[in-house]
């Protein structure tokens, strides 16, 4: 076939040049909240292992680093002065004081991740969730994790052996107040068996990724389909 013939030949309907525009997706912010010991950290870790298109938001905190934690991976550890400076410069999407320490979410990494079509996972409390809802409700999907019973919650706190007895008592006392905010969340999971809870969490994520308002380029895609492309 001559070059002239090849150049003048019409492309088949399935050729790349005649294809409809691609449909993309804006990422979402998936928030998991619960009282300490209900299992949100375990569920977060398992979800990250199973879902390649989601990453964990690394919070900044003023509390001391635990021996097993890595700065910049588990948290960004800063002093009170540095934290308050970030607040003053509006560099945090949300922040809260929990017990004697501050926790917050840096804005820039989240915005970059969502714009790239990837999702961001948050392990934050109800105060932070309220602030995210005020700033970016369209991007937010919130899930509250409940324990199957108060007795099981206490057993888990004691079994993980991360805190002295006095701190465990403080966490149990705070749990009732934290759980009172369940109705502010989009979804609630009772974490009796972590495997079943993970399946529920993955189902939520799949459905939310398909929400129409998160799909980018959809209008142009439909126009192209209607035009026969």
Structure description:
This protein has 229 residues and is α/β, with parallel strands linked by helices. The chain has one domain (25-220): 3-Layer(aba) Sandwich (Rossmann fold). The protein contains nine helices and eleven strands. Strands 3-8-2-9-10 form a five-stranded parallel sheet, with helices on both faces. The chain has a four-stranded mixed sheet with strand order 5-4-7-6. A hairpin with a 2-residue loop joins strand 6 and strand 7 (101-106). Helix 2 (40-50) packs across helix 8. It is globular. It starts with a helix and ends with a helix. Mean pLDDT is 87; it is low at 1-9.
List keywords for this structure.
229 residues, alpha/beta, Rossmann fold, 5-stranded parallel β-sheet, 4-stranded mixed β-sheet, disordered N terminus
Characterize this entry briefly:
Helices cover 42% and strands 20% of the residues.
């Amino acid at each position: 076939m001559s070059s002239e013939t090849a150049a003048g030949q019409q492309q088949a309907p399935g050729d790349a040049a005649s294809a409809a525009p691609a449909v993309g997706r804006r990422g979402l912010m998936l928030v998991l909240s619960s009282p300490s010991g209900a299992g949100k950290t375990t569920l977060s870790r398992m979800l990250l292992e199973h879902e390649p298109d989601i990453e964990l938001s690394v919070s900044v905190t003023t509390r001391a680093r635990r021996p097993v934690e890595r700065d910049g991976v588990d948290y960004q550890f800063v002093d009170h002065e540095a934290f308050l400076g970030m607040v003053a410069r509006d560099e945090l999407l949300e922040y809260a004081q929990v017990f004697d320490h501050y926790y917050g979410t840096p804005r820039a990494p989240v915005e970059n991740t969502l714009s790239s079509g990837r999702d961001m996972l948050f392990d934050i409390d109800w105060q932070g969730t309220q602030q995210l809802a005020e700033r970016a409700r369209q991007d937010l999907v919130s899930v509250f994790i409940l324990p199957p019973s108060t007795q099981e919650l206490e057993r888990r706190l004691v079994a993980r052996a991360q805190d002295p007895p006095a701190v465990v008592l403080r966490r149990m006392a705070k749990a009732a107040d934290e759980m009172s905010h369940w109705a502010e969340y989009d979804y609630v999971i009772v974490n009796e068996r972590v495997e079943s809870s993970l399946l529920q969490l993955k189902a939520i994520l799949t459905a939310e990724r398909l929400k129409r308002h998160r799909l980018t380029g959809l209008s142009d895609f439909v126009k192209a389909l209607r035009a026969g492309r």
